């Protein structure tokens, strides 16, 4: 880490030094193709399967039900498209929400072009999905329900266990995007009740470009990538062995430190929220006050352009974002903020500050002071 204040952990998190060391060792010692039958290939296969077993154990799954992908977006696409296409003989209706990650929303939009019907459920002003709305939306043609575990922009923690139970009661498959939750909150097959779970390593101090999809045994899901017979023919392509090893170790380290990190990060989050609300009275917190991700703070500053504020924060040495990193550069207002009832003008004033395990109280206090100074100056200049 450099001397900048990094408050964009929801976009990506710095890789653990131990993980980088492990990946370097695997690249050096297990460089063979894991599909090869000779000794060099078997060493790579052994390292890959060890990573799969570790990852599976951490989420309470069987190793054969965990599949490595290129990241959260691929995992979401595989879950949504694969499930829909494999179960088309049972129905053509999918239920999701207006606040999902674009990997889910655009996968659903693609399926609509293929003749699937998609219901996009509304949320309340804090971003919560009502389980009753899920139940009302289910029909005898519903094959899949997809609701994220935690919102990537405003941090809302959704009641996914109840939604999973409702889905199963009506014979629907349930998928949850747990990308933002994993590593800081427990994510387990038993607790979520999910049939499909998406994960991404770089959100919990692992490498970029690797993720995983859990598929409950017996769940019908077509392959997304066709080719070789790797990963039980679920996902073709030579496995990135070093990245898989890094992902498994990163989640293991986060799990070991989870209780301590969660308490500390939550305290820093609350310090940041309280500081902004007390020093900038016009600031508005987006999402619930407490039932949110431990490190997530999302504010709107009415009358101030969020993009301009982010640029000035960057010049002041503070890294933050406007929301999902996947929509960086988009001129469209946040679909999440619009879904919780904000106008386009209000949504354009939003910024996301996400705390990580390396942040300090002094960094939080400096951020509050800087934000108060910048917003006051911008108001004097007309936003």
Describe it.
- The protein is of the alpha/beta class and about 375 residues long.
- The chain has two domains: about 5-15 and about 255-380, Aspartate Aminotransferase, domain 1 (Alpha-Beta Complex); about 15-255, Type I PLP-dependent aspartate aminotransferase-like (Major domain) (Aspartate Aminotransferase, domain 2).
- The protein is built from 13 helices and twelve strands.
- The strands form three sheets. It has a seven-stranded mixed β-sheet, with helices on both faces.
- Strand 5, helix 6 and strand 6 form a beta-alpha-beta unit.
- It is globular, with a radius of gyration of 21 Å.
- The mean pLDDT is about 95.
Task: Set out the fold topology.
Layout: E1 5-6, H1 17-29, H2 39-59, E2 66-69, H3 72-86, E3 93-97, H4 102-113, E4 117-121, H5 131-137, E5 142-146, H6 160-169, E6 173-177, H7 189-192, E7 196-200, E8 211-215, H8 241-256, H9 258-279, E9 284-285, E10 296-300, H10 306-315, E11 318-319, H11 335-339, H12 344-347, E12 350-354, H13 361-380
Parallel strand pairs: 1-11, 3-4, 3-5, 5-6, 6-7
Antiparallel strand pairs: 2-8, 7-8, 9-10, 10-12
Helix pairs in contact: 1-8, 2-8, 3-4, 9-13
């Amino acid at each position: 880490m450099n001397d900048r204040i990094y408050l964009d952990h929801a976009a990506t998190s710095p890789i653990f030094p131990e993980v980088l060391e492990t990946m370097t060792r695997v690249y050096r010692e297990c460089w063979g193709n894991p599909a090869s039958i000779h000794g060099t290939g078997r060493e790579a296969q052994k390292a890959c399967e060890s990573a799969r077993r570790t990852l599976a154990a951490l989420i309470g799954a069987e190793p054969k039900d965990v599949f490595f992908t290129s990241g959260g977006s691929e995992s979401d696409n595989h879950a949504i498209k694969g499930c829909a296409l494999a179960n088309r003989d049972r129905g053509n209706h999918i239920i999701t929400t207006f606040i999902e990650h674009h990997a889910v929303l655009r996968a659903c939009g693609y399926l609509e072009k293929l003749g699937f019907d998609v219901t996009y459920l509304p949320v309340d002003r804090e971003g919560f999905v009502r389980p009753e709305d899920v139940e009302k939306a289910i029909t005898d043609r519903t094959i899949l329900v997809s609701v994220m575990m935690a919102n990537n922009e405003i941090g809302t923690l959704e009641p996914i266990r109840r939604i999973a139970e409702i889905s199963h009661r009506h014979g629907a498959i349930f998928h949850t995007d747990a990308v933002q939750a994993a590593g800081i909150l427990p994510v387990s097959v038993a607790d979520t009740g999910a049939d499909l779970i998406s994960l991404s390593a770089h959100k919990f101090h692992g490498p970029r470009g690797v993720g995983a999809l859990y598929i409950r045994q017996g769940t019908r899901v077509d392959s997304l990538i066709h080719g070789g017979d790797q990963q039980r023919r679920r996902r073709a392509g030579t496995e990135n062995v070093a990245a898989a090893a890094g992902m498994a170790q990163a989640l293991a380290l986060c799990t070991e430190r989870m209780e301590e990190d969660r308490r500390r990060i939550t305290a820093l989050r609350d310090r940041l929220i309280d500081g902004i609300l007390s020093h900038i009275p016009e600031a508005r917190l987006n999402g619930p006050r407490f039932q949110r991700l431990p490190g997530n703070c999302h504010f709107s500053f009415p009358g101030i352009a969020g993009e301009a504020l982010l640029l000035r924060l960057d010049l002041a040495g503070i890294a933050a974002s406007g929301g999902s990193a996947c929509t960086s550069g988009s001129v469209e207002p946040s679909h999440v903020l619009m879904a919780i009832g904000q106008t386009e003008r209000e949504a354009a004033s939003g910024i996301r500050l996400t705390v990580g395990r390396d942040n300090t109280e002094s960094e939080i206090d400096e951020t509050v002071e800087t934000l108060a100074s910048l917003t006051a100056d911008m108001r004097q200049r007309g936003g």
